[in-house]
Amino acid sequence: MSKNTQNKHDSEVVDAEVPQEEVVATTEDVVATTEDAVATTEGAVSKSKEKQSKTAKASPSKASPSKGKAAKGKAPKDDAPASNKNNDAQFDQEIESAGSGASLTFPMQCSALRINGHVVLNGRPCKIVAMTTSKTGKHGHAKVSLTGIDIFTGRKIEDMSPSTHNMDVPNIKREEFTLLDVDNDGEFLSLVTPEGDTKDDVKVPEGDLGEKMLEDFNEGKDLLVTVITSMDEEAAISYKEAPKNKD
Q1: Cα–Cα distance between 170 and 195 in angstroms, integer?
Q2: How far is it, in rounded angstroms, from Cα 229 to Cα 219?
Q3: CA-based R_g, the chain, Å
Q4: Residue 112 carries which DSSP code?
Q5: How high is the pLDDT of residue 44?
Q6: I need a labelling partner for 206 at 20 to 30 A (CA). Which of 31, 50, 98, 183 fits?
Q7: Do residues 170 and 105 lie in contact, with contact meaning Cβ atoms separated by under 8 Å?
Q8: What's the angle, vertex CA 179, arms to CA 127 and CA 95, rounded to 5?
């Protein structure tokens, strides 16, 4: 074979091999494009799942509103017994023995107070002797005018409060003691508790009550003295002759 013929043959082989390489390159481009499309699709799916997850967390449960409504519906039923308990306590004059550590007062809505009950007026424990309620004013609140008598001093105190506001009611403890003696100055009583202990810090009542008490005691009568305690104060408010033992 001549030299020219050999060169021509090599040229044809080279020309024939070029299209095959182009096909391979094109196939690789297609594969790369397909992989990019798959990656893009996976990214879109991932974002969609994240969005659904956030939406589920942000949206409240359908059961929650119904539970909330049920709770709200039950609340008024619970309020009524509490109000009745407050009224019962007021009608009982709050004269119950309070345990150790009991608070000095407890709150009560003004409209629930009653005559002959007790309330704190101007910082003093008072017995209510008069109550009047005015008509509802421009601001939508009826006013209650209260007149009370200080349970320790006997002084009359007046005050006014919206009917829907809470007022303090004093805890009052009433106890009865045996009168053992009176000090030399006639100022303090010496009392005996039901447990047999002596109590020497209660003053002789002022006025006619104290004078009559000392007079009956000096006549040799056995006396029982009633002492009330409220808001860190105490006083003897009455007495009676002790019943005689029948032999």
Answers
A1: 26
A2: 28
A3: 47
A4: G
A5: 55
A6: 98
A7: yes
A8: 25
Tens digits of per-residue pLDDT, 191-211? Answer: 999 899 999 999 999 999 999
Query: In 3-state terms, what secondary structure has residue 196?
Result: coil
Task: Tell me the backbone φ, ψ of residue 238, rounded to 5 degrees.
Answer: -165, 170
What tokens were used for 81?
């017994």
pTM over 0.85: no
Tokens of 133: 């309620």
Asked whether the predicted pLDDT for residue 174 surpasses 90, the reply is yes
Cβ atoms of 172 and 187 closer than 8 Å: no
CA distances from 186 to 75, 106, 152, 211, 241 (A): 57, 36, 19, 10, 19
Q: Are strands 143-150 and 156-162 parallel, antiparallel or unpaired?
A: antiparallel
- 150 residue type, one letter: D
Q: Higher pLDDT residue, 4 or 115?
A: 115
Say how far apart CA 43 and CA 129 lie, in whole Å.
Answer: 81
Q: What are phi and psi of 178, to 5 degrees?
A: -85, 130
Asked if residues 118 and 100 have their Cβ atoms less than 8 Å apart, the reply is no
Please give the C-alpha separations between residue 59 and each of 50, 101, 132, in angstroms, as whole numbers.
14, 48, 53
Compute the distance between CA of residue 140 and CA of residue 119 in angstroms, rounded to an integer: 24
Residue 43 burial (C-beta neighbours within 10 Å; 0-12, 13-18, 19+):
exposed
